[in-house]
Design a protein that fits this description.
This protein is an alpha/beta fold. The chain is built from eleven helices and twelve strands. The strands form two sheets. The protein has a seven-stranded parallel beta sheet with strand order 8-7-6-9-10-11-12, sandwiched between helices.
């Protein structure tokens, strides 16, 4: 079996790839530019990718390709219609990053709601020492237990974040497709009007693309905190930047972008210096334990496929 791993660098240099190497001959690439994809999958039976796009422009070169394994839960970078029409199977890895993503969501919410960066900078700059005052309590912050946390998305990550928010004493409201059995359920526009903290945990689909638009942002409470750990394109990024600049949003935490890495002319470059903005490099999924779990699950997906079993199959 020939396995092509096209963007190994995104998985981290500290991760053991034995679960994949033990299955066959591996061709491993730190990264793969779009123009090199076709060549690198040409002889492969299995393609393992994270962010690389596989579609009708490069997949026709892969005459032996039987299985695509995405090292992620989301698979919007794969042309599923092409795979279905040409008999190429696709497997993802659901649930592996739930704890990791929930942890970053919580970290962002706590930091932004406490104005932690501003207090840290005040102390580290020497301003605290020079002030001669024993304490500083501005900018004002509030106990998170006094807040309403709106969770958008009812999958594993959204459910985990909701449970953590509840444990912190928040009122939790949820927007999801299925009927919610545990928490208050609201439509998205109502949730945006009610919540002090809004966190996004939805896949990128035609339905969710651009769902957090200018109109919904305007409905959010003045001073609300928005956290996106889903996909960048589910939100209007220019409108988010403007809402920070105008002071309408009290905090913005973003780990995902419509273009990654985001370019120098991206709207978010205008708000990089804002103390109430926390931008991270699509790392929420990447705790050490999470990445190891992902590789182990991919190995199991490959073994199951060639044993004729249906495991984590999308196509």
């Amino acid at each position: 079996m020939k396995i092509a791993i096209l963007d190994k660098g995104t998985l981290g240099a500290d991760i053991n790839l034995t679960p994949l190497r033990s299955l066959g001959e591996t061709a491993e690439y730190e990264s793969t530019s779009p123009e090199n994809v076709a060549e690198r999958i040409a002889a492969a039976d299995v393609a393992v990718i994270n962010k690389v796009k596989l579609n009708g422009t490069n997949l026709p070169a892969a005459k032996n390709l039987k299985l695509i394994c995405v090292a992620a839960t989301g698979y919007d970078n794969i042309d599923t219609a092409y795979c279905r029409e040409n008999g190429i199977a696709l497997c993802n890895v659901p649930g592996y990053s739930t704890e990791s993503v929930a942890q970053l969501t919580l970290a962002m919410a706590l930091s932004l709601s406490t104005n932690l960066t501003q207090y840290r900078d005040f102390t580290h700059s020497g301003a605290y020492t020079n002030s001669g005052v024993a304490n500083k309590v501005s900018p004002v912050f509030h106990e998170i237990s006094s807040m309403t946390w709106g969770v958008v998305g009812g999958g594993g990550i959204g459910a985990r974040v909701a449970s953590v928010a509840k444990a912190l004493g928040c009122r939790v409201i949820v927007c999801r497709r299925k009927k919610e059995e545990v928490y208050e359920q609201m439509e998205l526009d109502e949730l945006c009007e009610c919540a002090d903290i809004i966190s996004l945990h939805v896949p990128l689909t035609e339905e969710t693309r651009g769902m957090i638009n200018r109109e919904l942002i305007a409905k959010m409470k003045k001073g609300a905190i928005l956290i996106n750990v889903a996909r960048g394109a589910v939100a209007d990024e220019a409108a988010l930047a403007e809402a920070v600049e105008s002071g309408h949003l009290g905090g913005l935490g973003i780990d995902v972008y419509s273009s990654e890495p985001f370019p120098a002319n991206h709207p978010f470059t205008r708000i990089l210096s804002y103390k109430n903005v926390c931008l991270t490099p699509h790392m929420a999924w990447g705790a050490y334990e999470s990445r190891n779990r992902c590789i182990e699950e991919i190995g199991k997906n490959i073994s199951a496929f060639f044993a004729g079993e249906n495991r984590n199959r999308i196509v």
